[in-house]
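Q: Predict the bound structure with iron/sulfur cluster.
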Amino acid sequence: MSAPSIIDLSRTHPPRETKVDVCIVGSGCGGATAAWELARAGREVLVLEEGGDYTGGALTMRDAMYDQLYMERGGRATADLAITVLQGRVLGGGGVINASDVVPMGPGVLRHWQQRYGLTELSPEAIAPFEKLALEDLSASHPTEEQINPNNALLREGTKKLGLRGEVMLHNRRGCIGFGKCLVGCPIDAKKNPRFVAIPAAIAAGARFFLRARAARLEHANAELKTLTVRVLDEKGYHERDEIVVRARTVILAANAVASAQLLLRSGVGNAHVGRNLSLQPQLPITALFDREVQLFRGIPQSWAITEHERLDDPEHGLWGFRIEGIGGTPGIMSSLLPKLGHEGKAMMRLLPHMAASLLLVPDAGNGRVLVDRSGRMRIEYAMPDEQKQRYRDAIRAAARVYLAAGAREVLVPLARPLSIRREADLSAVDGVGFEPATAPFLSAHQQGSVRLSPSPEGGAADPGGQVYGTRGVYVFDSSGFPTSSSSHTMTPIITMSRWFARRLLAHAG
Ligand SMILES: Cc1cc2nc3c(=O)[nH]c(=O)nc-3n(C[C@H](O)[C@H](O)[C@H](O)COP(=O)(O)OP(=O)(O)OC[C@H]3O[C@@H](n4cnc5c(N)ncnc54)[C@H](O)[C@@H]3O)c2cc1C
Ligand code: SF4
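A: Predicted complex:
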């Protein structure tokens, strides 16, 4: 019988030392895609993943799943607690718990990276074949008309009444029956994410996956053989239980923009750019009450996007402006979006069937930073400039107008001091919203840019092929290299770029 390819270290006596050709940290869109590419090219690949393996019925659709599927049980936030920073932590990474929106990088972003950041190889023409493969991996398609739930249909109705531009987004579901619990994993495995595409393909090509294996430190980053100290976690991933060592010729970090920078900083690897330029792309929820039932907790959560205000080729920033998308989720997720607590919160939750909700997606300019202190503790700092706050105000006004046009009796902006908008005249109150820390429920799902790619170490932390400056054979293949926001959604850009990075590595290594 052949040895298993997915090994949960918490349930075995792990080998004290493992030697491989390539060790990849993280099994999400970046890590799994790289594992597939490199294994099928004949490389011996080992992937380290600190999460467990959850598929099918093990995904119970309950809010309690946050505990097992999200980094720090969904409780990670910026140091000032202003922004919740969400990341998947499970075999397959964020693709397992994301909203399944498929939004490729626009050519404007790539041209911006070429012209402004000197990444001349990344022309839209050069990336197009990799994007095509990513869309195939994701089985990308449009939801059918029946799959657009009332929450998204109302947003579309308002968009059309106001004559704004919008679109039904591509998604990566096949056989979806509309449970609406995508953010805590799909119990019928309808999402074509890395768990069901790149991971089985990588395994078929010979790759192995260690679960409950947390890469804690990287040493000898410049040597032929690098050393990763790996902490073995317990079955639920709560505590570190043991320590093993992995030695590898090539180390690929694909742990997500926060965790990849964290590992480099904790290991003292890389130059002064590591951790800087972090983009969190914070999203702000907004809700509206209708006389009719909306039942936003049923069906595909996000399918309609208002793209009118989005700029895809801003000369200064690449992706800019803002975008509005419907959103739904479990009662727990929805209650966290509502402005009231206790008795009042309960009364609000009774209104849930009549509530519509959407997210305001505002690209940022890398205003964040990942830092690690002497004891190894990580913190995320983020400063929101006035210009960005202004775009949130503009986005609130735009979304409120759309909801009022669709017949909402009240639009509620869930701030510490909730804002109620019932008519056009109420919109002037938005001018006074200051977004002081922890007064608005900002959340980040698309972290990027903490190990910026640049043709020179003066301009960034990794070379255009993802190799971290100051190392020989340590790479970042996730969104940490992206110099600016790649797209309003990061899954497709990460899969695209990971494959591009992997093929470039193979071409250069011969
Ligand atoms: C709630 C939510 C909704 C989203 N919705 C969408 C969407 O609809 N469309 C879209 O395009 N994008 C969406 N995204 C973003 C997208 O899912 C992520 O950008 C993408 O999955 C990131 O891929 P990755 O491979 O870079 O990292 P991840 O998917 O985060 O994978 C990294 C993996 O590394 C593991 N890891 C981290 N540190 C270590 C370590 N030290 N040792 C070992 N393992 C480690 C983690 O457990 C994780 O599983 C969403 C994200 C979230 C959180
Ligand atoms: S809405 Fe579809 S993809 Fe999401 S959890 Fe339900 S069946 Fe799965």
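A: The first helix runs from residue 29 to 40.
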